[in-house]
Amino acid sequence: MYLARLQANWPVVAERIARSAERARRAGDVAVVVVTKGHPPAAVEAVRQLGIGPCGENRVQELEEKVQRVGRHAVEWHLVGHLQRNKVQRALPLFDLIQSIDSPRLARELSRQAEKSDVEVRGLVQVNTSGEATKGGFDPGEVVAAVGQIGELPRIRVLGLMTMAPLTRDAGVLHRTFCTARELFERCDRELASFEAKHLSMGMTNDYEIAVEEGSTMVRLGTALLGERET
Ligand SMILES: *Cc1c(COP(=O)(O)O)cnc(C)c1O
Fold this sequence. Notes:
alpha/beta, 8-stranded parallel beta sheet, about 45% helix, binds pyridoxal-5'-phosphate
């Protein structure tokens, strides 16, 4: 079922991404992370078969279950949700990229556990571009300094920024939100030696075309590809 669903949805989504990139006259090099949270391991299997890209999960327990079922290296795994510090140790072996470094304390704990396990953490720093209290991440005004500090921590590589836009149909608001994130990304790239400007992760089902127009290099799509979540 998931294979059929992806075979139907993926070409449509890929075409929309390509068109948005064209409108912005930029190269169409946009990675797609399939957000498989709320879907069974079969969804991950289908993503793997079609070779679409990494899979995104937001809960450690669910990530753990899926990794067990489909394999740690079947796909690249991204953690896209808030990670509690007391779960860092458990989560660390399970993901390839954490997109949601949202506080200095989490960054320090990731660094500490990575040192302990003799591994390296690859992560994106989350920016709260919408200013909503319910969303995590650093305020735009503190991002550059915070990214600089996190980049100095042992065993952490900051490979970019991630943001979530407010849930709105107002295209103007979405353009401004993503533009803010892109400007911060460019500033980090210019001003911080430790920053590796690889990924600007923005755009979800509701807003990915606008995000791509504003320079997203990585969209995170659940519903558009897999349909409504079951949980
Ligand atoms: C759930 C989630 C997504 C995917 O959302 P859709 O609207 O289903 O595309 C993307 N990013 C994050 C951080 C999420 O939590």
